Amino acid sequence: MTNRLVIVGAGGFGREVHSWVKSSPRWCESSEIGSVVFVDDNVPTVPVRAPIISTVRDYWPAEGDLVICAIGAPSARRDVSRLLSQRNAPPGTFVHDRAMLGDNVQLGLGAIVCPDVLITCDVRIGVNVHVNIGSTIAHDVIIGDFVTLSPGCNLTGNVRIEDGAFLGTAVTVIPGKTVGQDALIGAGSLVLKNIPPRVTAFGNPCVIVGKRPA
């Protein structure tokens, strides 16, 4: 029996994930993927290259479904993932064939690891984490649940990214620093000191520019 991959979210990142799945024959074979469909509340205005079978609220998993949540915003991804968990949707973990993972890399269920990602060794990544194109994660990094790393992020050794944090494109975090829970780090920022929870921070060096809702 083959599995049906259900991508939740047919927006930009969901469509990217669909492309990465199609270019990952080894992963598709090991996961026994026979078809791919989307679940989304809206019909995108751009072409979607797989059927949208349901809204999120109306989706109930069928036998053989493997579900990954490709909603970029951590808070929305958390809410949808909770709903899916209540319905016993089997979570999938996607690692593109062109990603490189070293020794003792622990990936939580629902993680998405895109092409050209490098994860070195002794790294722990939580559930439903997105690691986008070309990001690097060095030794002894800990990433919490529902974190988003946008393209080209660089996490150096012993960095900690707490639950729900969002790192914009090309963010660099120097060794040993922490980005707090639900913090948002703007694109191109260089994080030189610990960032507290639930703030927006930006710049080189990165500074706090606002607070986020609890």
Number of helices: 3
CATH architecture of the largest domain: 3 Solenoid
CATH topology of the largest domain: UDP N-Acetylglucosamine Acyltransferase, domain 1
Helix content: 10-25%
Mean pLDDT: 97
Q: State the major sheet.
A: 8 strands, mixed
**CATH homologous superfamily placement of the largest domain:** Hexapeptide repeat proteins
Number of strands: 23
Rg over alpha carbons: 17 Å
Order of helices and strands: EHHEEEHEEEEEEEEEEEEEEEEEEE
Class of the largest domain in CATH?
A: Mainly Beta
Quaternary state reads single chain
**Tally of individual domains:** 2
- Summing up helix and strand content along with how strands pair, one would put the structural category as alpha/beta
Q: Which strand order spans the largest sheet, edge to edge or round the barrel?
A: 5-8-11-14-17-20-22-23
What coarse outline follows from CA principal-axis ratios? Answer: globular
N-to-C terminal Cα separation, in Å? 44 Å
Strand proportion, as a percent range, falls in 25-35%
Commentary on this structure:
The protein has 214 residues and is an alpha/beta fold. The protein has two domains: 3-92, Rossmann fold (3-Layer(aba) Sandwich); 95-204, UDP N-Acetylglucosamine Acyltransferase, domain 1, CATH 2.160.10. The protein has three helices and 23 strands. The protein has helices spanning 12-22, 25-30, 74-86; strands spanning 3-8, 33-39, 52-54, 65-69, 94-95, 100-101, 105-107, 112-113, 118-119, 123-125, 130-131, 136-137, 142-143, 148-149, 154-155, 160-161, 166-167, 172-173, 178-179, 184-185, 190-191, 199-202, 207-211. Strand 22 and strand 23 (207-211) form a beta hairpin. The relative contact order is 0.11.
